[in-house]
Design brief:
The chain is α+β, with helices and mostly antiparallel strands and about 300 residues long. It is built from 10 helices and 14 strands. The longest helix is centred in the middle third of the chain and has 21 residues.
Length: about 300
Amino acid sequence: MSRYLITTFTLYCLLACFSCSVDNPKNSQSQMNENSFRGKVLSMDSNNSTVQVELLARSNDLAQKFPGGIGSEHTMQVQPGDFALLSNKPIFRGKLQETFSSSIGKTFLLHNIWPDNPADRIRVDNVNRLLRRNTLSMGESMIRTIGDNLPPFALYDQDGEIITTDFFDGSVTVLNFIFSRCSVADMCPAATMKMKKLQDLAHKTQIPHIQFLSITLDPSFDSPGVLKSYARGYSLNEDNFKVCTAKKSVIDDLTRQFGILRENNKNQPLDHTMRTIIINSKRQIVYQVPGRNWRVEDFLSRLQDGSSVNQ
């Protein structure tokens, strides 16, 4: 093959790769889910709970009913938790729903918002590929228990910040699984109130290096902004209490590893088991109570006895 043909073939391959890049607007638009919108926040109005955004990409169905093309600017309504998120994470991906505002008339409500900085997205995906591999290597009948170390994983907290297993280094962490739409009083609501009480008592008794982590079981609804409103609703001290979410596949892997069972049914969004866990500063599980009947006093005494959680 001549040098000219080799060069031409190489150039053709490079052009083909660039034409299929995820940064190509047409390709990016076609891959987005229904009612999905990717944008950049230009300004925010806290009085009216609105944001001015630049359109970066949109799903095909929105192209038919949403005015303006790529680069156009739009004013949209946002909910309180999402408003707080967008103040720190201006590049986002979310969903649109037609609504009405008394101040601006017909508009769109921007909801189910996730941070969408490309570098952060790549980092999260790379870490969670390791989690997927780790989950597959465990087999069907194994779950993590006392003495086991945590697998690698990456989540988004209620502020849209990335939480990885580095979060556990240097502190003792109380971990559980909840979801914001849970309406069974003695399940998630009771668990979060007990976590809140434990947090307050740990602060009152001056236990050092304690933190709390709740992971959602309902990632399709529990975006970071929804969890921000959830944390505020329970008056959690967010300085050391993170409420986290991720893609469904990541939550599936974590619930599989920690032995949490989930099942959808017609009466409520999700039926599930529970497990409350203490993890030491070396990312090792040192105590756990399955079910809903864990006691705040039991966990507090173990946290006060540093030797029992930092073996």
